[in-house]
Each structure stands twice: as structure tokens, then as C-alpha cells.
Amino acid sequence: MERTHRNAELNKNNVGEKVVLLGWVSKRRNLGSILFIDLRDRSGIIQVMVKEPDKVPDVRNEYVIQVKGTVSLREVANTKMKTGEIEVIADEINVINTAKLTPLIIADETDALEDTRLKYRYLDLRRPCMQRYFDIRDQIKITVHKYLHEHQFIEIETPMLCASSPEGAKEYLVPSRLHHGSFYALPQSPQMFKQLLMVGGFERYYQIARCFRDEDLRADRQPDFTQIDIETSFLDQNQFLTLMEGLIKEIFKNTVGYDVPLPLRQMTYKEAMERFGSDKPDTRFAIELHDLKEVFTNTAFEAYKTSEAIKGLCVPGVAKETSRKVIDNLTLEAKKFGLGGLAVLKYENNELAGSFNKFLSDDERNDLIKSLDAKEGDIIIIAAGNYNRVTPLLGAIRLQYGKSLGLIKPNTYDLLWVIDFPMFERDVESGEIVATHHPFTRPRDEDLKYLDEDPTKALSYAYDIVINGYEAGGGTLRIYDQDVQRKIFRVLGLSDEEITKKFGYFVEALQYGTPPHAGMAYGLDRLAMILGGTDNIRDVIAFPKNLAGVCPMSGAPTEVTQKQLDDLGIKVEIE
Ligand code: ASP
Predict the structure, then answer these.
(1) Which of 108, 117, 353, 476 has the most crowded CB, counting CB atoms within 10 A?
(2) Burial degree of 201 (CB within 10 A; 0-12, 13-18, 19+)
(3) Is the pLDDT score of 258 beyond 70?
């Protein structure tokens, strides 16, 4: 089709030129004697002026049109538009296709419900802000390909139809037509394959890999998502992290023009939990958790006498607005974390007040104020009980206040590594031992001794990259010794038989000259979300699922025909 330029390529220098443009009608204003059309194409919007509206066909919003005309200087420039200094005076307008009235407004500002946006995603994607998200996403991928190839990586695809392998989350299963009763699993990540590529001698692998986890969805999670998946041989932890920092620096430079200062700081998991109550701490604001065990050594409050952990934090300047309702909401939050409640004290008129105050001695009051550095008008929040409940609760409260009080400066970036994760953790509900990262993670050499006596004491060579409080990626050094690998499986409660059944090929491979190897995966969607400046992961995925795991556009998941089920040898009984 005839087209001389894309809209945003035109500027003052083109004034006087004859041009032919293609695009969608973004807006029109008919002033009777003249008609203005905002023409949108992939590059941007340009104003078209039609001097004799009667002589051109009628156009409506979202019609696809061709405009032939002459570039002219505008009398009054629109500084908000990239092409705001010029307009195109139309000689001819051709309608290429018409459009129905769209169910949502195609503009950055939209009041459409998210399900409407997802149902008509192809229209939603026309909005300039959405196009910008995908430009950022694309730029991340271009940078990944370039940087990793410059550093001797090779891109290799791994299978989508895999053997089931319990890595943590639930898997999506695909029934086999040829082997009734058997299932493929969609990969949670290419973890074992990429390790086997190291055994296969490639030394540096990457893949922009689709991954699938059947988990409950949240604003920053999707059932199918994309990872920048990486594995290397022969690097120690710091060599590997340096290589990965170089990549993240390039990504920030090429997407948002931010120069990430390197090296990134490293914080141990323990410190992150102690100070921020999270293994993905947002360290852009100052509220921190403090240990209050000592303050309550001689407490008269029964429940505190036996508490494993007593921790608190001080929220600046909110005493006045801390109503009964606010306190009730905080208590509800504590219940969500499996605690009976929490204590809230206001520091006003130089003294503490609140229902918990009566349990405190004068010394405890003074110590509390001192330990938390509380000032007039602040509140103190204290939680006590199981360490693994108390710390994340206070971490979540800290984050809520950080956001609601506007303590986080917009457009600031905070990047750090969290390292030295525990190798295992106990599932809070079942008490079972589970791998914190995954079972291929190498325990620290000095902690191997704990595997027999108390495995939960062992730390691992694991690292997460945390950006603005999001886990943007994570990885580990891997076990390359089959005996250690077997031992880890046993700690996780697998019998020899189960190990052979589930991981036999993998354990076998470790016997044929496995190099020491290390890797990680960046969450591409999360990175795009952070760099795009949205907190909704669905904004950076072209056709996402909603929070119920449904695609409102295609209707997935859908029922299938009896014939399809018969072919697969499947009988469905719905409970
Ligand atoms: N496979 C891991 C994950 O998906 C990342 C890694 O250890 O490389 O989280």
C-alpha cells in the first residue's frame, strides 16, 4: 500500500512535502467548515486538517484510512505531542476499512474494566501506553540476545512436553494420546534440561523460555510466563553475579536510560528478614523491623513470655489517623498470617497509649521508645509468636505504610542481591521439609554437615535479584556431585525408588563428568512490568489470563468434545 512515512517520522523539516500516511482514526473534531483528525499509527499520532469536510468520506473513530496531503506548520504548536509542531493538510482521504463503535476508549486514559480490556485485548493493545510496554519488553529481549551472545552464550530451546518433575509449584499436565493414562507436564522452568546442557558441554546457555506453574494468581503472577533462563559452567558465585549484573545494567540503560551503579549490594537472607521482614525487601524507605525480645525479658504479659520472636516497627507521624478501624484492620492482617493479633501503641503527648499499654512497665515503655527511636506522633506496632509468621507480617505492614504514606519516591530504582538462603524450609502448614529454591541447589560447603543432623540449618549458594521489592530473578550454584544430590532428595523425603523414578536420568548424568555450574532465571514479565512502571503483570503480556486463570477473550480453559476425550482415553467426572 502506498505510504511515504510513518506519522512520528515527520517534523518541521518536512514542511511543504507531499506525504501519504496510513493509520487509524484516533479522534475527530468536526468544526463545520474544517475537520481535524488525529491519525494514529504504530509510531504515534499526527493531526490531519481537512479544509473541505464535505469532499471527503465520512470517517469515524478507529476507521483505517489513508491520508494524502501536505505537511504544514501549525499556528499553535501542541507541546504534548511529538508531532505537535506540524499537521498534514489533507487533499484526499480513502477509507480502507470501517470499524464498529469500540467497547473501550482507545487512549492511555481508559475507565474500562480489566475484563473488558482483556476481552477486547486487540483494541486495548492499540492504546499508546500498551504499545510502550511492549517496546520495553522487546528492548529487554534485544539486549539479552546481544549481551549474552557477546559473552559466549548460545541460545538453545528445550522441550515444552516434559516428564513430570515436582519442583515446587503444581504442574499443568497434558494427556498422551498414544499412551493412555500417561501425561506430559509443561515445564515449570527448563531447570534440569539446562543443567544437562552443561553436562552436554555447552558451558554457557540461555533461552527466553516459556514456563508454566499452576499457582494461585496475584497481580504479579501468571500461569504461563516467560523467563530469561541462563546456565553457565566453571564460574564461582561472584563471577557469575558479576556477569549477570552486566546484563541488568545494559537492560536498564537500553529501556529507561538509568545507569545502575555496580556492583550491586548483597544482603543475606537473614538480614533481609530481620530488618525488612521479606526476602525481597524494598529498601527505598526507612521503616525497619526491630528485635524486641530483650525489651520484654521480664514481661508481665503471659503470651510474650514464651514467644519465639517479638518484633516491632515504628510508623512515623500516623498516631492521629490511627483509629479503632485502622487497628482492627491491622489485627485482621495479623490473623491472615496465623497470629492471634498484634499490639498498637500511639506515642502522643510524650507518652504511650493503647490497650496494650497497661501490660507495660515504665522501663519497658522507655526501652520501646528508645529501641524503635519513636518520636511524638508516631505509632509502634508489635507482633509476637512464631518467627516465620511475625517477620513476614511486619514486612507486609511496613510495605503497606511505605506505599500509603508515599515514602517511596516515584521513578527510583533499588537493586540488590539477596544471598545465603536457607537450603530448606518447613512448610508452615504441613511442617514438611521443602527446598527453598529447588532440590538442585548446592548447600554451602561448610553446611554439608547439617544435612544429617538438622537440614534446616544449612544455607545454600542461592541468590535472588530484588528490584523495588520484586523478586526479579533468582538462581543458585548447582550440585554437581551425585552423592550430595541423592542426599538432598532423601532429606526431601524421597525414597531411593522415587529418586530413580523421578530423577534417575538426571542423577545418572551427574556421573559422567559434570562441570561445576551455576545459573539463574530473570522473570521477563516482571522486568518489563518494573521498567514499564506498572504494577500489573497483565499489562506487559499480550494475551494474559485474569485473576481467575481465564482468558476473557478466547474463553480458555474450555470444555472439549467427547471425541477428543475418547481419543485421549479420558473420562471426566466433575465433582
Ligand atoms: N529454575 C529456577 C527458577 O525458575 C531458576 C534457576 O535456578 O535457574 O526459579
Answers:
(1) 476
(2) exposed
(3) yes
User: Do you know the residue count of the chain?
Assistant: 575
Q: In the predicted model, what is the mean pLDDT of the chain?
A: 95
- Whether domain 285-404 has CATH 3.30.590.10: no
Between the CA of 419 and the centroid of ligand 1 the distance, in Å, is: 14
37: cell is 483528525
The residue ranking higher by pLDDT, 169 or 92, is 92
Tell me if the domain spanning 130-269+414-541 has CATH number 3.30.930.10.
Answer: yes
Atom of ligand 1 nearest to the CA of 190: 1
Q: What is the pLDDT of residues 335-366, one digit of tens each?
A: 999 998 999 999 999 999 999 999 999 999 99
Sequence ranges of the domains in the chain = 7-97, 130-269+414-541, 285-404
Task: Check whether 165 has a pLDDT greater than 80.
Answer: no
CB 278 within 8 A of CB 341: no
What is the percent of the chain where pLDDT is above 90?
A: 90
Question: Residue 441 CA: which ligand 1 atom is closest?
Answer: 7
Ligand 1 site, CB within 6 A: 189, 191, 474-476, 519-521
Q: How far apart are CA 380 and CA 398, in angstroms?
A: 11
Distance from Cα 246 to the centre of ligand 1, integer Å: 19
Amino acid at 284: R
Q: Using the mean position of ligand 1's atoms as its centre, give its distance from the Cα of residue 236 in Å.
A: 17
Nearest CA to ligand 1 atom 4: 189
Is CATH 3.40.50.920 correct for 7-97?
no
Centre of ligand 1 to C-alpha 338, Å, is 29
The residue nearest atom 7 of ligand 1, judged by CA position, is 475
The residue written with cell numbers 499556528 in the block is 75
pLDDT at 45 over 80: yes
pLDDT of residue 166: 64
Q: What is the DSSP letter of 412?
A: -
Q: For a pLDDT cut of 70, what percent of the chain falls above it?
A: 99
